[in-house]
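Sample intake — AAA family ATPase
Collected from: Georgenia ruanii
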Amino acid sequence: MSHVVLATASPELTATVAAATAGAYVALPQLPATPGEVLAVAGGLPEVVVLDARTAPDQVLDVAAGLTAISPGIGVVLVSDCPAEVGLAAMRAGVRDILTPAADAAEMRDALTRAAQLARPQTPTTGLPLTPDAGPAGKVITVVSPKGGVGKTTVATNLAVGLTRTVPHSTVLVDLDLQFGDVASALNLDPEYSLADAVHNPARRDTMVLKTFLTLHETGLYVLCAPESPAAADGISGDDVGRLLQALASQFQYVVVDTAPGLNEHTLAALDQTTDPVLLTSMDVPGVRGLRKELDTLTDLGMFPEGRFVLLNFEDPAGGLSIADVEATIARDVDLTLPRCPAVPASVNQGIPLLQLGGKKNPMTRQLGRLVERFAGVPTLVARPGRRRGRHRGVKVGA
């Protein structure tokens, strides 16, 4: 296997790479149409690939994205006349460095070294392409609720941002409220692509190009937003959702899914792929009764008998319900509560999640931090003083 592969028809660039590597490279004298052509000439997984993007840059970026998807341990270096123009797309494709054609052998050698060093710690130990058939490697955390207006998107966005802060570039957030999802608004994003693009383009069949359809948030979180038009949801099936989440779980440590209210086809498809369901409700009679019905439905379907995480939003001692009342109604403990917080509306209106804002912590921020720690593997949740798990006190809320 060759450690450096060069794909170019330029004699000048070939001479530069030859000098930078002391001849230790393999040349592909034409623009590759697929990542497989690069791997074939390399005889396996190369350490660094240099791609000449001066002609057909879109094709080159597709190949770069494919190589990164096959193995993050491949360092891709682009050569471009217009680095500023291709910079964002190159970043999405996982490119490690961009050089101009004027770069000399020393600059090329430095770029190759940097690309190899940045990529090497991420090389898969198996050396095999990552595909959905290999099974999901990451957690799929799906936030569901029987009704709207309970803060589902606020919870999902803060959880995703918090996980990203814990492990940079580890997390992707999927807006599965396909008709009226507002994750893009909650994160102040103007996405170029949506979930409809991801399931109707080559990414539907090929994980190698999937990352090119994600939007990168300033925190390092990757986001797949809902379509702009509610009508686009009609062309997305439950099978599409299942394949998408499988592919994302093979690429990311955490996949956080925000869903539409209720249990529609898309939400059920997401739950089929979910490792960690978060059942969310507000602290009011309609919300609690809806959660009980949702729990009963999931039980009837045989889904998550022990692995459900129950989250109660808008906790308010003056609201007429106690946590014991809620637990008596749903016949199980509440795992975490989120208080009413005046900072939340401002955060939503600004498109900046509370866990991104930082600054002075309030009770809501602390509880959101505990939620993140729960899924990041840090056991910080403790039982409330004076209460035993499994014991339910209080009066049932309705039938």
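Post-analysis note: Residues 121-136, 378-399 have pLDDT under 50 and may be disordered.
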